[in-house]
């Protein structure tokens, strides 16, 4: 991993504003890494959860070698659906908390070396 490398946190739509706010508050960096948030399409409809979109969002995160984390889902049902996809790719999921709290935890884990990028950044 090189100094100044950029890693990406994929964030579900309902949590994106809070995650971006916390990321900006922290200066967009953790340790020697630049961190960016990429907002995903919402899987929450007015009446039901779109599991196809949940899966598509999780798979999108797995296809990016700069992916460090997945912030979402807000419901246990959605988390149970996305977790196996993310676990297979060794991507940390932050679920059941606000976007800001998840981003803060992610940045702390990166800063303290408890989480590290996949691949050869």
Account of the protein in words:
By secondary structure, the protein is an alpha/beta fold. It has a single domain (6-111), classed as Rossmann fold (3-Layer(aba) Sandwich), CATH 3.40.50. The protein has 4 helices and 5 strands, in the order βαββαβαβα. The protein has helices at residues 13-25, 51-62, 76-88, 99-111; strands at 6-11, 29-30, 33-39, 67-71, 92-94. A hairpin with a 2-residue loop joins strand 2 and strand 3 (33-39).
Keyword list:
alpha/beta, 4 helices, 121 residues, Rossmann fold
Number of H- or I-type helical stretches: 4
The strand count comes to: 5
CATH architecture: 3-Layer(aba) Sandwich
At the first level of CATH, the class is: Alpha Beta
Q: What is the ordering of alpha helices and beta strands?
A: EHEEHEHEH
Q: What would you give as the CATH superfamily?
A: Response regulator
The structural class is: alpha/beta
In terms of per-residue confidence, which ranges show pLDDT below 50 for 5 or more consecutive residues?
none
CATH topology: Rossmann fold
| Average residue-wise pLDDT | 91
Helix % is 40-55%
Spatial separation of the terminal alpha carbons: 4 Å
Strand fraction: 15-25%
> What spatial order of strands do you see in the largest sheet?
2-3-1-4-5
Mind telling me the C-alpha Rg? 13 Å
Main beta sheet, described?
Answer: 5 strands, mixed
């Amino acid at each position: 991993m090189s100094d100044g490398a950029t890693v990406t946190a994929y964030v579900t739509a309902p949590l994106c504003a809070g995650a971006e706010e916390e990321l900006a508050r922290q200066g967009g960096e953790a340790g020697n890494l630049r961190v960016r948030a990429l907002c995903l399409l919402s899987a929450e409809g007015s009446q039901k959860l779109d599991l196809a979109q949940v899966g598509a969002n999780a798979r999108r995160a797995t296809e990016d070698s700069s992916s460090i984390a997945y912030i979402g889902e807000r419901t246990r049902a959605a988390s149970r659906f996305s977790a196996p996809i993310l676990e297979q790719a060794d991507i940390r999921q932050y679920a059941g908390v606000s976007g800001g709290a998840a981003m803060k935890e992610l940045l702390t884990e990166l800063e303290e070396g408890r989480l590290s990028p996949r691949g050869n950044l």
